[in-house]
Amino acid sequence: MYFPPFAAEDFRQDVHWSTYRCIAGNTVGTIISRDVAVYGVVLQKYEPEVQNPSGFIGSNVLIKCNIPSFAKEYVTITSWLQEPNFNIYPSLEGDGKSHMLLSGELLVYNITRNDAKKIYRCRTHHKLTQDSVVSRNAGEIQLTEFRDRVPPIMNEKSSQFFTRLGDPVVVPCIAYANPKPTFRWFTKRSNEKYIQNILASGRAKIKDGTLIISAVEKTDNGAFYCIATNSEGTETFEAKILVTYPLASTIQPSIQTINIGQPADLICSVTGFPKHNIRWLKNGRTLGSGSRVRLITREHVRFSSIIKEDKGIYQCFIDNDIDSAQSSAELRLGEVAPQLLYKFIEQTMKSGPSVSLKCSASGNPTPNIVWNLDGFSLQNNERLMIGQYMTMFGDVISHVNISAVKTEDGGAYECRAISRAGEDFHSARLNIYGMPYVRFMPKLSAIAGKLFILKCPVAGYPIESVLVTKDGMRLPVNM
Predict the structure, then answer these.
(1) Does residue 2 sit in helix, strand or coil?
(2) Which residue of 18, 327, 425, 435 sits 20 to 30 Å from the alpha carbon of 132, by its own alpha carbon?
């Protein structure tokens, strides 16, 4: 699917701001893709703006670069410029004085009067236009003199930090206080020594109140708390670290062949986190459950007894607020011998009207229906037409339509459903009132020692008797 460029006045929300799915299908089944979200963006110029934070000597200060809401999703803060020409780039720990966090903010440790004289600009990158924009305004630290004692004050009491498994995360804890506070990190987990354990492992460190984890693990998912304390009081900051890992799913078995009436299981193995929703589809439609098809768990589907309609493609979809994934598996039916579901009946009629004979059959693989008349293959002609089609459930239906029947159309009609799994047949007479009539018989072949059956292709009704002769002698001669 291709979306050509469009002018702002041509923007259509139902086209350019919508969710799409791709659907693919064949005789085996149907699958659908994950949701594809399309967001058409009308480009607008944006101006990053650097805040002027306040602080006092000895405290840590966090400088933020604000991006307008309409561009925030597409703009990344790539670096900071401390004028005139000192560039600060993202790092795990910084240089001891200036530390650009992985999330884009600039953290200045232990500010001095000299730091209040410096000015900072942020440099940004727009991922759609590839433009690099430096903030016009320059940020400065507003130094505040505190003569009185002040308990710790935090501008932010909580924040969320999204990070992928194995990636680093840097969590600052900023508090304004006089005298300078001390910082302590802890968790409310069953293991109260969790912080001490990750510090001892070398996987994490605390630098002037900033928690630095070099490679997050799944167990890091959850809330961390920072307490800032001085002689005047305490304040607590809650940092929710949300660890993610790309979702993936696999259905086992990916292909299975089950005979009708037998049980079957489909199990969706899921990796990645966080896990939210799991849903099952069959041939692109939501899988219904009941007494025969049950969800043992969200990941486990059980069929107590397979029926013909169960064959097809099954998909397991998983998603959360960040990611989604799907997998598919095919359920095939074992070979089932053909079975005639509908059979035409014997009919007796006069010449002239039309007549239709119908047979339908099921089986796996789908059988083919052939027609015979008195044991000889039936062929299309100007008055006789054979038609066959398959239903959505895999049944095959075949008709013999005869227009303006004549006496010679009478005889024993047979429909035979055939596949590699076996065959089934049905025969009944079509009687047309009229004089006796014997149709032409082609040359016949037989094998010595094997059974040979000959049906006399007789039409007309009623028939009093049928005689078969060989070389002028009436058969049979040796019953």
Answers:
(1) coil
(2) 18
CA pair distance 351, 432, nearest whole angstrom? 6
pTM beyond 0.85, yes or no: no
Which of 81, 114, 145 lies at the terminal end of a domain, its last residue?
145
Q: Is 7 exposed, middle or buried (0-12, 13-18, 19+ CB in 10 A)?
A: exposed
Q: How far is CA 451 from the centre of its chain?
A: 58
Using a 10 angstrom Cβ sphere, with 0-12 exposed, 13-18 middle and 19 or more buried, the burial of residue 108 is buried
Picking from 295, 168, 152, the residue whose alpha carbon sits closest to that of residue 227 is 152
**Contact in structure between 30 and 313 (CB atoms under 8 Å):** yes
Which CATH number characterizes residue 97's domain? 2.60.40.10
Answer whether residue 359 is part of any domain.
yes
Kindly report, residue by residue over 413-471, the tens digit of the pLDDT: 999 999 998 999 999 999 999 999 999 888 889 999 999 988 889 999 999 999 999 88
- The tens digit of pLDDT for each residue in 130-174 reads 999 999 999 999 888 767 888 998 988 999 999 999 999 999 999
Quickly list H helices, 53-128: none
Q: What is the CA radius of gyration of the chain?
A: 41
402 phi/psi in degrees, rounded to 5: -120, 125
List, in sequence order, every beta strand (DSSP E) within 343-410.
347-349, 355-364, 368-373, 376-377, 384-390, 396-402
Find the domain containing 439 and state its range.
Answer: 336-475
